[in-house]
Hints:
Elements: H1 21-43, H2 56-68
Transmembrane segments: 24-43
Protein name: Probable cobalt transporter subunit (CbtB)
Keywords: Membrane, Transmembrane, Transmembrane helix
Amino acid sequence: MAHSAASPAIAPSATPVTLPIRAILPWAVFFGVLMLVLLYFVGAEQGATSLMSGENVHEWLHDGRHLLGFPCH
């Protein structure tokens, strides 16, 4: 009987794709500013640095403040 041995198939190695910083930087700045604005509205709006008068923003974000540990009253 002929003895056949199957040779293991060698998978091609994956090469990582490199992204240039110039492609990522505008998106990183955009999301960074967006996160800072959201952090301001959740954490500081209706406080000493209030931008909007009234209680609307405070009431909309009230539970989020407590969830994230910001004191509000």
